[in-house]
TrEMBL record:
InterPro entries: DHP_synth-like, DHP_synth_dom, Dihydropteroate_synth-like_sf, Pterin-binding_dom. Residues 117-409 form the Pterin-binding domain. Its EC number is 2.5.1.15. One of its GO terms (molecular function) is dihydropteroate synthase activity. Keywords: Folate biosynthesis, Magnesium, Metal-binding, Transferase. It catalyses: (7,8-dihydropterin-6-yl)methyl diphosphate + 4-aminobenzoate = 7,8-dihydropteroate + diphosphate. This is dihydropteroate synthase. The keyword NAD does not apply. One of its GO terms (cellular component) is cytosol.
Length: 422
């Protein structure tokens, strides 16, 4: 008899070949889900604590809650799917707002539609782009290259949305895009085309030329509603942003990052659906009015937004927060190297000459003194998008199409993406 520790419980269960019904029941016991509840009424907290324990779940409460000094407390509820489903049934009969919480939890636990995993290749026709700029001829060549690689979507824009970028009029966009639009009209391909614009006129003409996605970073769907109503096949990417590209890095304050973005999406989705615009893709807006830690939090907590039951897009490709993480890590490494190098060499197997040389050459080898290379940022981008895919992203917007296609193949081969995303 031998024992093997497994990392993928669902795959291991399937290998044992259980009964299908039994598999579905047992599967609900394999994953712990957690939900933070803000400002829970004291009475509700006390009831929920007991109900959670009696159903195999748990409610984490503040240490001073037992003294009942406040009327409301923030709490953390966690448990398996099975335990939470039992708890929800009991909560639906309880007072103090627990019925409403039960309904919200029920939505989170509902099986989500599988939108698959897609790669969106980026083409910029703007001199102010933070990444490589293409002129019209180069952009057309890149389109054919992306199609040959097998990309799912090609996103084309002629106005930069990098931090500090100024507004570009539709007239200028259209001048830059005209040759590209003419070429796309000739194409017979299953690849989708997305227009990256906040200008209504640019979006309108792009749709007329065969584009089926409007990627609008403005966060103001009101400007695109008429186009969407007239073209029901067109999808709209709703991006979270505060301010504009010119001002957004001064607008990184939130009461609660995840819940504030959730509220933004709730309001904008309701507006779009009221106007019969139902093909919606959500983009949490990595880098748009978010600092480094906020971007990290969004990648880690992306699953939260699955409850909207809409495709999720992530665009972290080559963004500055990744370079800042690398530089921050390099600072720590450099600090540790200097500490070791300046420590009394008698405590180490290091001769005096080697020790002196190491100290003198620290500045020349200090990685912080050099900006992160494109290769470094590519590696960071791939890791960020791998995490995003694992956490529920359906579309990743990328500059490096070939590398992402290869990464997705590896993920599928290793069954990393076999993790159930709720």
């Amino acid at each position: 008899m031998r024992i093997e520790r497994v990392s993928n419980v669902n795959e291991a269960m399937r290998s044992v070949e259980p009964d299908n019904i039994g598999y579905k029941i047992m599967k609900e016991k394999t994953q712990i889900l957690a939900f933070k509840i803000e400002a829970l009424q004291l009475q509700a907290m006390q009831i929920l604590k007991q109900d959670a324990l009696s159903n195999g779940a748990e409610l984490v409460t503040p240490k001073d809650a037992v003294l009942c000094k406040k009327t409301h407390y923030d709490c953390l509820l966690f448990g398996t799917q099975k335990a939470l489903k039992l708890l929800i049934s009991k909560m639906q009969m309880q007072p103090f707002g627990l019925k409403a919480i039960a309904q919200d939890l029920k939505v989170f636990l509902q099986t989500q539609k599988d939108y698959g995993k897609k790669i969106m290749g980026i083409i910029n026709v703007d001199s102010n782009s933070f990444y490589k700029e293409f002129n019209a001829n180069e952009a057309i060549k890149q389109i054919y290259h992306y199609i040959e690689l097998g990309v799912d979507i090609i996103d084309i824009g002629a106005a930069s949305s990098r931090p500090g970028a100024n507004y570009i009029e539709s007239k200028i966009e259209l001048e830059r895009l005209a040759p590209i639009f003419d070429e796309i009209k000739k194409l017979d391909t299953t690849t989708q085309f997305s227009i990256d614009t906040y200008n209504e006129e640019t979006a309108k003409i792009a749709v007329e030329c065969g584009f089926s996605i409007i990627n609008d970073v403005s966060g103001r769907p009101e400007t695109m509603v008429q186009i969407l109503q007239k073209n029901s096949h067109v999808s709209y990417i709703l991006t979270h942003i505060q301010g504009t590209p010119l001002t957004m890095q001064e607008c990184c304050k939130y009461e609660n990052l995840i819940l504030d973005i959730d509220t933004f999406f709730t309001q904008k989705i309701a507006y779009l659906k009221e106007h019969d615009c139902n093909n919606i893709i959500l983009d949490v807006g990595i880098g748009f009015a978010k600092d480094v830690q906020q971007n990290i939090a969004l990648l880690n907590q992306l699953k939260h937004f699955k409850h909207f039951k809409l495709p999720l897009l992530i665009g972290a490709s080559h963004k500055s927060f990744l370079a800042k993480i690398l530089e921050s890590s390099s600072t720590t490494i450099s600090r540790n190297i200097r500490h070791d190098a300046t420590t009394d060499y008698s405590d180490h197997n290091l001769n005096p000459a080697t020790h002196s040389s190491l100290v003198q050459n620290l500045d020349s080898i200090n990685p912080v003194s050099k900006s992160s290379t494109s290769k470094d940022i590519l590696s960071a981008t791939l890791i960020a998008h791998c995490i995003a895919w694992q956490n529920g992203a359906n579309i990743v917007r990328v500059h490096d199409v070939k590398e992402h296609i290869e990464m997705l193949k590896i993920m599928e081969a290793l069954r990393v993406n076999d993790i159930d995303v709720l």
